[in-house]
């Protein structure tokens, strides 16, 4: 499967979930290591005029889930992906559109994750996601463990 096809399938999957469809998210890019999601502030603004914390948490959860799902699809593995646990640090308010980058955690390895999944039918790995401030720096930082379970 081509990368473009896999990205279109991922976007379609996001939009097929009613709560996610209302977020108006789009895929901002994928460089082989990081998946970027984008959403307009206007859909996520809180009473203070900045991005709603729940939206930031959702976007980081979705970006991390999407990165694993994309990597599995490109590897030809049919599996369900679940978030096992996560932690979020809100560092600064965001008064701009939401751009989230998700990537594998520094101590994790794609090859080991995929090999374990193929061998045992189940594997877990760590991910990191960040919401960047337009002027530089990080508004929100997310760490999580995700589990993949082969279907069938």
UniProtKB/TrEMBL annotation:
It holds the Pfam family YiiD_C. It comes from the Bacteria. Transmembrane segments: none annotated. Residues 15-149 form the Thioesterase putative domain. SUPFAM superfamilies: Thioesterase/thiol ester dehydrase-isomerase. NCBIfam families: yiiD_Cterm. This is Thioesterase.
């Amino acid at each position: 499967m081509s990368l473009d096809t896999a990205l279109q399938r991922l976007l379609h999957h996001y939009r097929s979930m009613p709560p996610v469809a209302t977020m108006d998210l789009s895929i901002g890019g994928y460089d082989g290591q990081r998946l970027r999601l984008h959403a307009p502030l206007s859909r996520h603004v809180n009473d203070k005029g900045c991005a709603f914390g729940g939206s930031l948490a959702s976007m980081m959860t979705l970006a991390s889930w999407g990165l694993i799902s994309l990597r599995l699809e490109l590897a030809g593995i049919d599996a369900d992906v679940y978030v096992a646990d996560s932690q979020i640090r809100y560092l600064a308010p965001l008064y701009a559109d939401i751009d989230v980058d998700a990537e594998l955690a520094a101590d994790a390895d794609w090859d080991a994750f995929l090999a374990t999944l193929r061998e045992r039918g189940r594997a877990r790995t760590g991910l990191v996601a960040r919401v960047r401030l337009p002027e530089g720096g990080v508004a929100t930082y997310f760490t999580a463990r995700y589990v993949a379970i082969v279907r069938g």
